[in-house]
């Protein structure tokens, strides 16, 4: 009941953030492609020696296969890679990867069910600093996309460096938009790129929150149904044993009365 009450609000937030998140991603790709020689540190493409993964999981359990499905999405990508670093959100991801000896560079917890924009801003700042410092040459975001209360799908999205659109030929090149930058392309990108990171991460946090609550509601609903079924079986068995005991006692009383005669 608690998960169901929170799910509605989380679902509304997730659905409301999706169009803005998709639009800012689309606009940034076009702007980055049209910026010409203006290169921002978050757009620099380097040889990939170190890869970072931002994994959004839950702080609590009792959510069915929510966490395990997410880990199945992440583990094949980092298995055997010594150059892979993890930034985890949620205690479940932190504990899972720590027990298995994976390198965790940064961890966040305590807000998986109710994420705020300030949480996304802090994570985005951490990622940007690590990317600019060369700790990571590329960064991926792994989270659970909310589709419905009974359907959640783990997905992997490339965060940095931002892939520019319009560089390929064909339709992508034809659809490229031209922009006039004021005061300069570098300053516009300097403001737009951090906002892009914060928005995408915040949208993913909202999606993960709704997915967690939906999975928990489904899991607890199944647990309640199973418990009620078990209770029904136990009550039936109890009544059978009670009836057998009463029948046996009546038989003993009748037998004793006949013996006295």
TrEMBL record:
This is ATP synthase gamma chain. GO terms for molecular function: ATP binding; proton-transporting ATP synthase activity, rotational mechanism. Gene3D superfamilies: 3.40.1380.10, ATP synthase, gamma subunit, helix hairpin domain (1.10.287.80). It comes from Lucifera butyrica. Its main location: membrane. CDD domains: F1-ATPase_gamma. One of its GO terms (cellular component) is plasma membrane. The keyword GTP-binding does not apply. NCBIfam families: ATPsyn_F1gamma (TIGR01146). It is found in: Cell membrane; Membrane. Produces ATP from ADP in the presence of a proton gradient across the membrane. The gamma chain is believed to be important in regulating ATPase activity and the flow of protons through the CF(0) complex. Belongs to the ATPase gamma chain family. Keywords: ATP synthesis, Cell membrane, CF(1), Hydrogen ion transport, Ion transport, Membrane, Transport. It is a peripheral membrane protein.
């Amino acid at each position: 009941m608690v998960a169901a009450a929170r799910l509605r609000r989380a679902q509304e937030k997730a659905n409301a953030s999706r169009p803005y998140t998709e639009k800012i991603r689309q606009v940034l790709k076009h702007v980055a492609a049209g910026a010409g020689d203006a290169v921002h540190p978050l757009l620099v493409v380097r040889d990939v020696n170190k890869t970072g993964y931002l994994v959004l999981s839950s702080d609590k359990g009792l959510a069915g296969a929510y966490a395990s499905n997410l880990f199945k999405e992440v583990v094949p990508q980092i298995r055997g890679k010594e150059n892979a670093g993890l930034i985890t959100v949620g205690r479940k991801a932190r504990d899972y990867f720590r027990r298995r000896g994976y390198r965790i560079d940064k961890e966040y917890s305590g807000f998986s069910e109710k994420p705020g924009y300030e949480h996304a801003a802090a994570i985005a700042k951490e990622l940007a600093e690590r990317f600019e410092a060369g700790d990571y040459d590329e960064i991926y975001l792994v989270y659970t996309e909310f589709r419905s209360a009974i359907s959640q799908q783990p997905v992997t999205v490339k965060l940095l460096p931002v892939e520019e659109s319009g560089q390929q030929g064909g339709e992508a090149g034809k659809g490229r938009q031209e922009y006039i930058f004021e005061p300069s392309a570098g300053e516009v990108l300097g403001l737009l790129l951090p906002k892009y990171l914060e928005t995408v991460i915040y949208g993913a946090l909202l999606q993960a929150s709704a997915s967690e609550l939906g999975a928990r509601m489904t899991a607890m609903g199944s647990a309640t149904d199973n418990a009620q079924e078990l209770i029904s079986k136990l009550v039936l068995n109890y009544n059978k044993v009670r009836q057998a005991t009463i029948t046996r006692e009546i038989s003993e009383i009748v037998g004793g009365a006949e013996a006295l005669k």
